[in-house]
Amino acid sequence: MPMKIVTIVGARPQFIKAAAVSRAIFRCSFADAGGFSEVIVHTGQHFDEKMSEIFFKELEIPQPDYNLGVSSLSHGAMTGRMLEKIEAVLHEEKPDVVLVYGDTNSTLAGALAASKMHIPVAHVEAGLRSFNIRMPEEVNRVITDRLSTWLFCPSKVAVDHLGNEGVTKGVHLVGDVMFDVVLHFREKAEQAILLEQWGVESGKYVLCTIHRAENTDDPERLFAIFSALKDISRQMPVVLPLHPRTFNAIKMQGRQEWLAGLKVCEPLSYLQMVRLTMSSHAVVTDSGGLQKEAFFHRVPCITARDETEWTETVALGWNQVVGANKNKIFDAFCQAKIPLPPCEEEPYGAGHAAERIIEILKEEIA
Fold this sequence. Notes:
Elements: E1 3-9, H1 12-31, E2 36-42, H2 49-58, E3 66-67, H3 75-93, E4 97-101, H4 105-116, E5 121-124, H5 136-147, E6 150-153, H6 156-164, E7 171-173, H7 177-192, E8 206-209, H8 213-216, H9 219-233, E9 238-241, H10 244-252, E10 263-265, H11 270-278, E11 282-285, H12 288-296, E12 301-303, H13 311-315, E13 319-321, H14 326-335, H15 353-365
Parallel strand pairs: 1-2, 1-4, 2-3, 4-5, 5-6, 6-7, 8-9, 8-11, 9-10, 11-12, 12-13
Helix pairs in contact: 1-2, 1-7, 1-15, 3-4, 4-5, 7-11, 9-14
């Protein structure tokens, strides 16, 4: 009889990661009748068409079996509502394992619900640390790691973080599933998506995404970032897929003029983002996922945060962490004009992380 996995997702980065693992689950089930069955639960954390539905279609992820519709609440209310609804799903499905990704409220709610029902938790992207406990994501990932039976780490640094915290049982270095997805879709994105729709040429624009609360909720930080983007745009076009949270923050302050001179567009699909990332001159972001994807494509990244979980990208010279500092962001952009030497290192594995995760779960659960 197939072993049942309940997969909990709710935000775009989780959809991307799930694309690789769900594909591996399907391959395993197709090859082995005693493999896995997967039940996908979408919490609703990212709920609109651009932020959610299109990712399932484009990444060829099976449609969710459950959509809980929990969004637009405070952290506590959102997590509590998700916990209640996920618990009901787990009572109905009775899975062998609950699979969670990353560090969102959906991640924490899934891990809490499963652990209280004594269902083993598998955490994909375990061991990441910013060491900034004020970040909700840091709280979510630390607690989820403590609740997990299997901790699937994207890099040796993540394994070392867990070891320093005394967590060694169930820890596996598997690589980064997002690298699996990039390798699978990179050629398709290059062939299917044309840069002309944004009015830019390959290597002659900067891609920017800003969405983290530490920036959007702080008017001074947000002003500094957009001042730097305006300076950059005088030298090179800046393409800005505008996150709803960022747009609302700008609108609340009555500062729509900050967007003048930038190539602002709505949030983009995964393939569109891959195409824009791989062909850009540089990336400015506060997104963890985009930091990695810039590195996968060997595009210089400028991180508008005070720290990063992806320290490997910094150590290898492809990521500058500059905070929300106008001058530092612009200086990093100027430095990105200097070509970096070729980098053959792959600290996030060789693109087989999802297969390794399923192999381990099959062995362990059996």
